[in-house]
Design brief:
Elements lengths: L1 H46 L6 H5 L3 H8 L10 H9 L7 H4 E2 L10 E2 L3 H5 L11 H5 L8 H6 L10 H4 L12 H5 L4 H8 L2 H4 L4 H5 L46 H7 L8 E2 L5 E2 L5 H5 L3 H9 L16 E2 L2 E4 L19 H26 L1
Length: 371
C-alpha cells in the first residue's frame, strides 16, 4: 500500500512542478504588465505637454464644465472690458499670459482662448489640483493685485484661502451674499449689524469693506480690488448712501473720517469716544462733551443739566449734523432785522411846497382884507 502511493506520487511530481512553474510565470508576467501600465500612465500623465481643450474635460466633468462656461475665466480673452483695456495698451501680448491658456512667451502664441481647465489643472490628463492662493496669485496680481491685497489684509485672513469664499469653477461667492460669505468667520460682526439701520436696509459687508477702483494703465496705477478688506477714512465715503451733509462738524475731516469721529463703533453704529468708550445713539451728552467741554460745563450747571432732568440730551435742541439750533416748536423763531428804508424825498418836497403856497395865500388874503 505504501509502495503504491509512493509510485503514484513519483509519477505526478513532474506535472505538479510544471504546473507550478506555469502559474508562477503567468503571475510574474501579469505583475510586470500591471507595473509597466501603471508607470506608463503615470509618466504620460506627468510629462504630457499636449493640451486637450475644455471640450475634452467636459466629456467626464459635465457639471464642472457647465459652471466654468459661465464664469469670467471662460471669456477672459473676449469680454468687452478686457478688449477695451487691451486695445488701450496696443494689444500687448503680455496680457495674454493670464487671459489665455498655454501661452508661450518665446513664440507669443497660446493653445486656447480664455482661462480653461488646463490653465489650473495642467495640460493633458494630469488632473493636478493646486488650490493654493499662490496659484490664483499668478494672474490675480500686478494691475489687479487681488493676491497682494489679500496678503496685506492681516493675519485673520492668512488661513483663509481663495476657495473658502469663491467657488473654484464659477469664481462666484459660495454664499448668495457677501454678508453670508463673511459670516462664516465674522459671525459676531454680522450679528451686530443686523440690529442697525444697515442691517434693516440689507447693506452688505462688501458695500463698506470692499472699496474698488479701476486700474489706470496709462499712469501705471493698479486697481483696487477690495481684497484688503480694510476701511480707511479716505476710501469709505458715507455720503454715497447718506445724504446728510455736515455743517460745522465738517472740520473733523473729509468723507467718512468726520462720520467715524462720532460713529466710531462701525458695526453697531454706536457713539464712540476717543478713549474707546461706547454709548448708545440716544446718549449724546458724553460724546459732545469731549469736544464742547465749556458748553457742557455751562449746560451742566444750568436748568437742563441739573439732576432733576437726567434725560436731557444735546440732540434734543441741536441737529448733530447741523448743530445750529433749529426747528424747536416751543420757541418762535426770531425774525431777521430789516433796516428801515429812508422816506422818499420827492413827496416831502411836494408837501412842503403845497404847505408854503397855502401859507402865502392866507397871508395875501389877510392883507387884502385889511386894506
Amino acid at each position: 500500500m505504501v509502495t503504491t502511493l509512493k509510485k503514484v506520487s513519483d509519477t505526478n511530481s513532474p506535472k505538479i512542478i510544471k504546473s507550478t512553474k506555469v502559474i508562477f510565470f503567468i503571475l510574474t508576467i501579469t505583475f510586470l504588465m500591471v507595473i509597466i501600465a501603471t508607470v506608463t500612465v503615470t509618466v504620460m500623465g506627468e510629462t504630457s505637454e499636449e493640451y486637450m481643450g475644455a471640450g475634452y474635460c467636459a466629456g467626464c466633468h459635465s457639471t464642472e464644465s457647465e459652471h466654468w462656461s459661465s464664469s469670467p475665466h471662460a471669456d477672459a480673452s473676449s469680454n468687452a472690458e478686457f478688449l477695451e483695456d487691451w486695445e488701450e495698451l496696443d494689444s500687448s501680448v503680455s496680457c495674454l499670459s493670464c487671459h489665455t491658456t498655454g501661452f508661450d512667451e518665446d513664440t507669443n502664441t497660446f493653445e486656447t482662448e480664455g482661462v480653461t481647465c488646463e490653465a489650473c489643472h495642467g495640460p493633458g490628463d494630469t488632473m493636478e489640483r493646486d488650490t493654493s492662493p499662490e496659484l490664483c496669485g499668478e494672474c490675480h496680481s500686478g494691475p489687479y493685485p487681488t493676491y497682494e491685497e489679500w496678503k496685506d489684509s492681516g493675519p485673520s485672513h492668512g488661513n483663509a484661502d481663495c476657495l473658502l469664499c469663491h467657488d473654484q469653477h464659477t469664481a462666484e461667492l459660495k454664499f448668495e451674499t457677501s454678508t453670508g460669505t463673511c459670516g462664516q468667520c465674522h459671525d459676531t460682526h454680522v450679528d451686530q449689524v443686523l440690529d442697525t439701520v444697515h442691517g434693516e436696509t440689507d447693506v452688505e459687508c462688501a458695500d463698506c469693506h470692499m472699496i474698488e477702483e479701476p486700474a489706470d494703465f496709462v499712469k501705471g496705477t493698479p486697481a483696487k480690488t477690495g481684497h484688503s478688506f480694510s476701511l480707511t477714512e479716505h476710501e469709505l465715503d458715507c455720503s454715497t448712501c447718506h445724504d446728510r451733509p455736515l455743517s460745522k462738524h465738517d472740520v473733523l475731516g473729509e468723507k467718512a473720517y468726520a462720520c467715524l469721529s462720532c460713529h466710531g463703533d462701525i458695526h453697531e453704529l454706536k457713539l464712540e469716544l476717543v478713549n474707546r468708550e461706547v454709548y448708545p445713539l440716544d446718549n449724546s451728552v458724553p460724546l459732545c462733551a469731549q469736544c464742547h467741554n465749556e458748553r457742557y460745563t455751562a449746560w451742566e450747571q444750568g436748568t437742563h443739566g441739573e439732576y432733576d432732568d437726567p434725560e436731557a440730551q444735546c440732540t434734543e435742541c441741536h441737529d448733530p449734523h447741523d448743530p445750529i439750533i433749529t426747528g424747536i416748536s416751543t420757541l418762535e423763531s426770531i425774525p431777521p432785522r430789516v433796516a428801515a428804508k429812508p422816506a422818499p424825498i420827492l413827496p416831502l418836497i411836494v408837501v412842503a411846497v403845497v404847505v408854503e403856497l397855502l401859507f402865502i395865500a392866507v397871508f395875501v388874503f389877510r392883507r387884502q382884507s385889511n386894506v
